[in-house]
Design goal:
Its main location: membrane. The chain is an alpha+beta fold. It has helices at 6-40, 61-89, 92-118, 133-161, 168-190, 197-226, 230-258, 268-276, 311-326; strands spanning 44-50, 281-291, 297-305, 330-337, 354-358, 364-368. The strands form two sheets. It has a four-stranded mixed β-sheet with strand order 1-4-3-2, covered by helices on one side. A two-stranded antiparallel sheet has the order 5-6. The longest helix is centred in the N-terminal third of the chain and has 35 residues, at 6-40.
Length: 383
């Protein structure tokens, strides 16, 4: 039931104006509180530096898909023809090349799927999104390469013992055609974003295929001119060696990411010592460096600053140093003043309990007892 009393309407209007005034006062209070909180964060702050330049490391979805799809089309078409010719000619070298190209095709398919998954925004329990989908595909591709290499190696040894008849002419012609196809396919993949581990793996596989086709062409020429049938099996063993090298490399690289190891080329001890040497820094501990996905390093650390130091200034200086020296743009730094914690108790470095750890020279080096990993302080010898 609506109230049409003019006085009631006036009171309601006045109430709206009073509400607006109250809201304005509340907003002003929030702004003041924000300024006060900002000031308090000089003593304790956790800052997340996510300056990725608009996610510059993300796959360039549309352009990359076109390049990879073009390479995939070439590979699948030629692979089908190579299987047919290899079976007709009885050439294990051609069949091994086709098997290798099958893994290349699979890696490209997985790369395309991983691009779509990695592009999805982070939500729910997947706080980093699905950016490690490419690492899963790279590891699966590496395992497939190793398993195929084992099977092809067994077949090559068996044919070395009992070499079958091989049509050298078909082998030579098909290998020369494969060289042309692989040159074009490798160029297509090289145009995509090779910061992605599985895209880079596909590129390396295609490059290895190119070398393998060269070996197969030589084997076909030898069979054609001399009748030495074992040349085909020897070429297969060369392909097996390339597959094992590429597969183990992918497994090793993807395993480092899954095990949260520091990126290759970044030494955590060096990073910690350099951070501790920055101005106004008293100590750095709980330092962790890992990769979210290919070419996406991340870092977190607890930094203690001298009592009268500028926490914000130190944090900005450290983030700039990490970005410029090591390319680490995803940083989480907890910065505290040395001298007090949340409970008001003093934080004194020299009075902290320390736990011994072994150094490379066999001597004991002491670090903070509750720290994960070594403690870095200015003026101490490098770790």
């Amino acid at each position: 039931m609506q109230d049409h009393d003019p006085s009631g309407a006036h009171r309601a209007g006045g109430g709206h104006r009073d509400g607006r005034r109250d809201a304005g006062r509340r907003d002003a209070g929030h702004r003041d509180a924000g300024h006060r909180d900002h000031g308090h964060q000089d003593h304790r702050q956790q800052d997340h530096g996510h300056r990725d330049g608009g996610h510059a490391h993300e796959v360039r979805a549309d352009a990359d898909r076109r390049w990879l799809a073009g390479a995939l089309t070439l590979i699948v078409a030629f692979m089908a023809a190579e299987v047919a010719v290899g079976l007709a000619a009885g050439s294990l070298a051609l069949l091994s090349d086709a098997a290798h190209m099958l893994t290349d095709a699979a890696s490209l398919v997985l790369a395309l799927v991983a691009m779509r998954l990695a592009a999805r925004p982070a939500r729910g329990g997947y706080t980093f999104g699905l950016k490690r989908a490419e690492i899963l595909s790279a590891q699966a591709n590496g395992l497939t390469l190793v398993l195929l290499a084992v099977w092809l190696g067994y077949e090559a040894v068996r044919r070395l013992i009992r070499p079958p008849e091989v049509e050298g002419g078909w082998v030579l012609v098909t290998a020369l055609a494969g060289i042309a196809v692989n040159v074009v396919a490798t160029w297509c993949v090289s145009r995509a974003n090779r910061a992605s581990l599985n895209v880079e793996g596909a590129f390396q596989h295609l490059l290895n295929d190119l070398y393998a086709f060269l070996g197969t062409a030589v084997a076909g020429l030898i069979v054609l001119t001399t009748g030495f049938a074992r040349a085909d099996a020897l070429a297969s063993l060369a392909v097996v060696a390339l597959m094992l090298r590429a597969g183990s490399g992918l497994i090793r690289a993807s395993g480092r990411i899954f095990l949260e190891a520091a990126p290759a080329g970044i030494d955590p001890d060096t990073v910690g010592d350099r951070m501790a040497a920055a101005g106004q820094v008293a100590e750095v501990h709980d330092l962790h460096i890992w990769q979210i996905t290919s070419n996406r390093p991340a870092l977190s650390a607890h930094v203690l600053v001298v009592p009268d130091g500028d926490c914000h200034g130190v944090r900005r200086a450290l983030q700039r140093q990490l970005r410029e020296d090591w390319g680490i743009t995803h940083t989480t730094l907890q910065v505290d003043h040395l001298g007090e914690d949340d409970s008001g108790t003093l934080l004194q470095i020299d009075d902290r309990p320390r736990a011994p750890r072994e150094s490379g020279a066999g001597t004991e080096v002491h670090g903070t007892e509750d720290a994960h990993g070594p403690t870095h302080r200015p003026g101490e010898p490098p770790h």
